[in-house]
Specification:
- By secondary structure, this protein is α+β, with helices and mostly antiparallel strands.
- The chain has a single domain (about 25-160), classed as at5g01610, DUF538 DOMAIN (Roll).
- Helices cover about 15% and strands about 35% of the residues.
- The chain has helices at about 5-20, 25-30; strands at about 45-50, 55-60, 65, 75-85, 90-100, 100-105, 110, 115-120, 125-130.
- Strands 1, 2, 3, 4, 5, 6, 7, 8 and 9 form a nine-stranded antiparallel β-sheet that branches.
- A hairpin with a 2-residue loop joins β5 (about 90-100) and β6 (about 100-105).
- The radius of gyration is 19 Å and the shape is globular.
Length: about 160
């Protein structure tokens, strides 16, 4: 019996795996639009992007929640979506932030130089870009044992308009 079909199948699988590993990650895609990787937590398993409109979806294996040092909680649904363009994420869905006792949808993120402005519709808050150079981890944010870091001051200014 010929081994040719098995060799062809193995070659095709290798070619597909190589092509997939060469495709950009969701995090490198963010960087190509001038965003830091840290606006997405670790764990994106897939994404799709319509380059003609900027419409995107990012997928996690489940919802992703975490708290950030001394300030607020974030929740990412298993699928988040919106529109991406240079320095701007708009019409976002699937991302919420807890402010005091309310969960509010983050609907827009804009990069202005070295600052990021996060909008919940009625108000927005600005943060230094340096706070987003690393991706937080689902469940523990930056408080994970392997990611422990004191450099992130996460005071939360959403309680007043900018």
């Amino acid at each position: 019996m010929s081994r040719l079909p098995i060799l062809i199948a193995a070659f095709l699988l290798l070619a597909v795996a190589t092509a997939e590993s060469d495709s950009p990650t969701a995090y490198s895609l963010l960087q190509s639009y001038n965003f830091p990787v840290g606006i997405l937590p670790k764990g994106v398993v897939a994404y799709d992007l319509d380059t003609s409109t900027g419409k995107f979806h990012a997928y996690f294996n489940g919802s992703c929640s975490f708290s950030l040092v001394g300030s607020y909680q974030l929740n990412y649904k298993s699928t988040i979506s919106g529109y991406i363009s240079e320095n701007k994420l708009t019409k976002l869905s699937g991302i919420k932030v807890k402010v005091l006792f309310l969960w509010l949808n983050i609907v827009e993120v804009v990069r202005n130089g070295e600052e990021m402005a996060f909008s919940v519709g009625i108000t927005s808050a600005n943060f230094d870009i340096e706070e987003f150079l690393e991706s937080p981890q689902c469940g523990c944010g930056f408080e994970c044992e392997e990611l422990s870091s004191d450099k992130f001051d996460r005071s939360f200014p959403f309680v007043s308009s900018s």
